[in-house]
Amino acid sequence: MKTKYFIVVLFCVSFFVSAQTVTVVDSESDKPVEYVVIKSADNIAITNSAGKADLSKFNKKNILTFEHMSYTDFSTTFAKLKEQNLVVKLSASIVKMNEVVVSANRWEQTVKEVPNKVQLVKAKDAEFFNPQTAADLIGLSNQVFIQKSQMGGGSPMIRGFATNRILIVVDGVRMNNAIYREGNLQNVISLDANSLENTEVIFGPGSVIYGSDAVGGVMSFHTLNPRLSSANKWEVSGNALTRYSSANNEKTGHLDFTFRNRKWGFVTSLTYSDFDDLKMGSNENDEYVRPEYVEIKDGKDNIVQNSDKNVQKFSGYDQFNFMQKVRFKPNTKWDINYGFHYSRLTDVPRYDRLIQYKSGKLKYAEWYYGPQKWMMNNLSIRHSDKNSLYDDLKIILAHQDYEESRHDRKFGKSAIRERTENVNILSANIDVYKKYDETSTLYYGLEAVYNKVNSDGHQRNIFTGEKEDYASRYPDGSKYYSYALYLNYKNKLNSKMTFISGIRYSQVVLESKFDKQFYDFPFNEIEINTGTFNYSLGIAYKPAHDLQINVNASTGFRAPNIDDIGKVFDSEPGSVVVPNPDLSSEYAHNIEATIIKHFNNRLKIEATGFYTILKDAMVRRDFTFNGKDSIMYDGTMSKVQALVNADKATVYGLQLGIDAQLLKGLSLRSILNYTKGEDQDDVPLRHVAPLFGSTHLIYQVKNLKADLYAVYNGEISYEDLAPSEQSKTHMYATDGNGNPYSPSWVTFNLKTSYLVSKNLQLTGGIENIFDKRYRPYSSGIVAPGRNFVFSLKASM
């Protein structure tokens, strides 16, 4: 009898406890929402990783309010909660006010305390828009312009700067290496857009925290992080995704799964993508079509007519990404994470070179990048223990191994030139967080980075396989070191104003020895040993709950790397770039101001103006080599050029954004970016994007979300093209005077998502609905034509 009584009591108790547990989920995906703050007049609770919180201590007569930085606030009563089976569905807020970012000083803080302009791109954006690469993912911000020389590429431009003037950071580790070039870069696509938790873009110089290269901005990528369980038992979850795009017959498969308990967490992610040749649009700009291509028949090169001129022959490639993470948290003080990343691309044809002509014929029979490989081992150790030196200490040790190669063969030639580069990078970061009181916080740290570059060159007969030595792209065995110490201080002057200042000292050392077998260099080696201070000073002022004003001044720098001082290569038809041993660092001085105004949590208007001066700017100019202004290079008499330090360059612009909740379930988002840049001679800068932006009309109700949007770019006339772009007639349209220029364009697009069930999501859409044929500024490949995109995601 006592046993039966005990069972009844146990059942009643368990029922009562479960009846006091609320579950909070996302209204769109039905997935649990962590860190939701639940408030009442007498208590407070926070949801766990399962979206659950215990309300047993709350007064049942009080109103409950659910708050989260990314969702619209929701209030209800206990009675209504019971009617909803203790499940609360929160709707994502189009007007977000308190998002958390970590890139500004390498530690978590809310946007309202950051004077820099920071843009977030979340995993939910990738899930909805289905970008094919990490470059396309960054483009979703509509504040970063993406240039592509080939389909297997994507070079972000931020505020008139690009390539080695923008820093890429992955899980706190700088990805930029010693051979990041001045030309367009494609390295960002080594990252897997499907394995990213979120991405943060810092606009403007970020050298105080990140050092060299952070001139135009910082792109900080955060990959999937192993989450731990609140239960003692092991938990398993995972996602499977398949995607198809019609414009390049894309076939992508992705799988990620997590094992976790209280102390251990494991995340595995795999993605494979197969891209066929890309098909452009069929309307307007007939100059962009691909009428012919080169094919080997009967042992020789032949010009073959393209059966479909809108298909960009030899643009397809495949990509594989793998990531494994392990997390161990033995107690509240220690948190240890290890991450392994691997990416491999197949041969990627360099499309902009394959459409070059010489004497009326295609210049190249082959031009492709060999398999691009990137591997990173990353160990992060975090210790939380309030003492006189720190509250939190984080140590990040990383090793990266990067390989790329270039292969080109001119039409009718049997020899293909092949150059391979391998870069090994070791890095160590120590980051410290110390909060002295409710107003003062100190961030400081150390960084050390080592690069070794191995470079090889040869020519190979495509028919016999015979090889002979050829000049390598860089001096083999070159080394590049950097060391730095930084200090950042935050002070909440009062409830409305936050002051942040920082300083960093960086020392950069470069060593390159030159082999004179192929070129008679007037020097045997180049050594650079340079140091610099950088500072930042900013105020985030919030005079009212719905108004924020930020002012920020900062400096950035870029020290010459191996690519800047060591290479000999053809930059464009008829020009060859040679080393300049007298090259020195360039420095950016930036000031910007941002105003953010909210109207009743239904409308947000944000405007940022910036002005940047780049002193001692590294720019390509006419040069001499052994006293000659032209030399024979690769069988062609070519004008000699080199990177030199110009007096200065200026870049300024304006970024505008509007987010509006029009009606229940209907919202509007619009972004516009204007940038202008030129050097001291009023010559336009190469990486200044045209006026660009987007406007989205978003409808969301229950399990359905739809986004009808326009993406647009302004014109860049011939006069406003950089001199290096004016010579690339094969890439641009022709104006009324017969000169190359970049026309304006607009596309209309539709994306939809439907939650079939809690664990099954279907997304689809049409890009470039009117099949416009257009080529984004400075891009070698034409953008996709009308493109049907479908994906299916299953979760468990």
Task: Please render the helix and strand layout as text.
Layout: H1 2-19, E1 21-26, E2 37-39, E3 44-46, E4 52-54, E5 64-68, E6 71-76, H2 78-83, E7 87-90, E8 100-101, E9 109-110, E10 118-122, H3 123-129, H4 134-139, E11 145-147, E12 155-158, E13 161-162, E14 166-170, E15 173-174, E16 196-203, H5 207-210, E17 217-223, E18 235-245, E19 250-260, E20 264-275, E21 278-279, E22 292-297, E23 300-305, E24 311-312, E25 317-328, E26 334-345, E27 348-349, H6 351-354, E28 357-358, E29 361-362, E30 364-369, E31 373-384, E32 392-410, E33 415-435, E34 440-461, E35 467-469, E36 478-492, E37 497-513, E38 525-544, E39 547-558, H7 562-566, E40 569-572, E41 575-577, E42 586-599, E43 603-615, E44 618-622, E45 630-633, E46 636-645, E47 648-663, E48 666-679, E49 692-701, E50 704-713, H8 723-726, E51 733-734, E52 740-741, E53 745-757, E54 760-767, E55 787-795
Parallel strand pairs: 1-7, 14-17, 41-46
Antiparallel strand pairs: 1-4, 2-3, 2-5, 5-6, 8-9, 10-16, 11-12, 12-13, 14-15, 16-17, 18-19, 18-55, 19-20, 20-25, 21-24, 22-23, 25-26, 26-31, 27-30, 28-29, 30-32, 31-32, 32-33, 33-34, 34-35, 34-36, 36-37, 37-38, 38-39, 39-42, 40-41, 42-43, 43-47, 44-46, 45-46, 47-48, 48-49, 49-50, 50-53, 51-52, ...
